[in-house]
Amino acid sequence: MSDCEPLERKGNAGAMNAIQPILVTGAAGFIGFHLSRRLLEMGRTVVGLDNVNDYYDPNLKQARLSLLTDHPRFQFHRLDLQNRAAMEALFQAHSFSCVVHLAAQAGVRYSLTNPHAYLDSNLSGFLNILEGCRHHGVGHLVFASSSSVYGANTRMPFSVHDNVDHPVSLYAATKKANELMAHTYAHLYRLPCTGLRFFTVYGPWGRPDMALFLFTRAILAGDPIQVFNHGQMQRDFTYIDDIVEGVARVMGRTPEPDPLWRGEQPDPGGSTAPYRIYNIGNNQPVALLEFIATLESCLGMTAKKEFLPLQPGDVPATYADIEDLHRDFGFQPKTPIAEGIRRFVAWYREYYQS
Is the dihedral of CA 66, 62, 279, 258 positive or negative? Predict the structure, then answer.
């Protein structure tokens, strides 16, 4: 793990017990799979949770799981977050040192047509996670938020110290709600909580509903790709290995109350509770047309482009200010976009034999 001790920081009273298992929700998902595999490689015991739903191809989720389930220190539970009784039983059966909550109903565009899925998973499900952590002595809850919470904000780069009260999709609203719910539990019950606002994660085993996957599949099939906002988009594409590195670092240190926080001038990035929010991104936004050109180069093919207006719920640009994460954990993404796309294409061609 490069130059830090991500799970056992010396002198930190909140460091995790290396013997106790770690719960990773969304373990069959993109980030959850990669994080679980990394933790297993580091000698940790992982309990994975996922409902393996059909939001995208369940076969891809099962293929990820197949690389985890044979490991002797990995145990998998297939269940829904909103199943209150099953979640209570899960926390009762294990003594988790840390919970990394990555499971959620994802997707901005999907939220336009399936809003109830977001309330069930992202709100009711998250409450069950918070209650499990509260009642069973979990030492640290690390949970996934999203760059989508910045919504109508246009000041770049996006900072955790800026107000984020203007979401433009229900998905974003549920992620902001998760932050508020976690802060409440950190305040009321002193449950240490760290939220991570992910910025456009990509890489091998990625989600089929994300741009890189959609573009690659369409180009190889000779189909046109949909380029929204007429190509005038920027995204802070962040490679999966950099994301996992950042999550692993954060897991190893519980947040402390900020002694400088003041209610008369409340800083959204701090709290008197054991609670922190961080951006986790590449800190180098890439224009969508440049992204497509890099993919074309890696594939050795030219895309047929269908230029379309901005989709409802989308934002034209994302750009992460990661100064706080760098200051507190030494986080610095290392994977150039060309290298990350090359690795994805190599995986895609091998997995799909294309």
Answer: negative
Q: How far apart are CA 11 and CA 2, in angstroms?
A: 19
DSSP state of 158: B
| Mean pLDDT taken over the chain | 92
CA-CA distance, 30 to 329, in Å (whole number)?
23
Helices (H) and strands (E) in the chain, counts: 11, 13
Options 56, 118, 150, 171, the catalytic residue = 171
C-alpha to C-alpha distance for 196 and 173, rounded to whole angstroms: 15
Tokens of 97: 């040192």
Residues in the chain: 354
For 140-179, the pLDDT digits (tens) are 999 999 999 999 999 999 999 999 999 999 999 999 999 9
Contact 346, 208 (CB under 8 A): no
Give the pTM: 0.92
Instruction: Work out the angle at residue 293's Cα, subtended by the Cα atoms of residues 292 and 295, and round it to the nearest 5 degrees.
Output: 65
Q: Helix-strand-coil percent breakdown of the chain, rounded to 5?
A: 40, 15, 45
Task: Name residue 128's amino acid.
Answer: N
DSSP designation for 270: -
- Name 85's bridge partners: none
The one-character DSSP state at 287 is E
Q: What Cα–Cα distance (Å) separates residue 37 from each residue in 66, 68, 109, 178, 249?
A: 11, 7, 29, 26, 15
Return the structure tokens found at 25: 């929700």
CA–CA distance, 347 with 187 (Å, rounded to integer) = 44
Neighbouring CB atoms inside 10 A of 224's CB total 13
What does R_g of the chain's alpha carbons equal in angstroms? 20
Around Cβ 255, how many Cβ atoms within 10 Å?
23
Whether the predicted pLDDT of 13 surpasses 50: no
110 catalytic per annotation: no
